[in-house]
């Protein structure tokens, strides 16, 4: 279990935190000729070594990096504007399958350092509701992006992104500490602040876009927190 948690943490950090948007665009434009693709793979290998902290297991990060390169290369080769959204989630699913297969095959051959599994689990869950959730939500609802949006000078830079991250972190903490009433309070508070935006908007698509994003945000946070609670008792 510990190996899976370590590799999962390294994967999500490498894909969602230590991969600048400029790298993503360069990979999409230049595909396999992009040096950013190979920098990205080196980041994953380095993070895997860092989280495992056992150089006698040198082959595991190399397997992770090699399979990551193959999956990303296939994605970039097949990707176009029509299938981009679906390939994003297929790509992530394949990376996760590889990690779980590695953890399953190697579990009997590795002596783990005595680190609490629960700590890794809590930290992984908290990170999942930040950048990974933001990017996933943006990808999911990209097809619904309305033509009429709030002008840049009417909103703080990236304010929506950070508001979403904070609300999901709060929901996550409330649920793993068994304080569900806090989730209800947060939803009520969010509804009050959003009500004026929705009533003043003359664009129905914008209103629906905001509601879909909000519901997805809360749904992902609740789902991750419930998953963490279930796995915590299974450890």
TrEMBL record:
The keyword Magnesium does not apply. The keyword Membrane applies. Keywords: Membrane, Transmembrane, Transmembrane helix. The chain crosses the membrane at residues 42-65, 86-105, 120-141, 169-189, 209-231. Pfam families: DUF3307. This is DUF3307 domain-containing protein. It comes from Mesonia profundi.
């Amino acid at each position: 279990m510990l190996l899976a948690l370590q590799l999962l943490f390294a994967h999500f950090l490498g894909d969602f935190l230590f991969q600048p948007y400029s790298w993503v665009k360069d990979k999409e434009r230049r595909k396999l000729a992009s040096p950013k693709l190979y920098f990205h793979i080196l980041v994953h290998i380095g993070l895997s070594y860092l989280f495992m902290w056992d150089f006698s297991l040198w082959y595991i990060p190399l397997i992770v990096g090699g399979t990551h390169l193959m999956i990303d290369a296939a994605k970039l080769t097949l990707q176009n504007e029509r299938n981009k959204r679906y390939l994003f989630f297929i790509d992530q699913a394949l990376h996760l399958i590889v990690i779980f297969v590695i953890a399953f095959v190697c579990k009997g051959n590795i002596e783990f350092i005595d680190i609490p599994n629960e700590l890794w689990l809590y930290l992984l869950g908290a990170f999942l509701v930040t950048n990974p959730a933001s990017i996933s939500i943006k990808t999911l609802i990209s097809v619904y992006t309305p033509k009429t949006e709030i002008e840049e000078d009417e909103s703080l830079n990236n304010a929506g992104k950070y508001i979403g991250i904070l609300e999901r972190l709060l929901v996550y903490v409330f649920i793993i500490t068994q304080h569900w009433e806090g989730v209800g309070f947060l939803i009520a508070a969010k509804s009050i602040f959003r009500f004026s935006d929705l009533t003043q908007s003359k664009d129905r698509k914008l209103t629906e876009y905001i509601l879909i994003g909000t519901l997805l945000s809360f749904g992902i946070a609740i789902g991750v927190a419930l998953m963490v609670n279930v796995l915590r008792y299974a450890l």
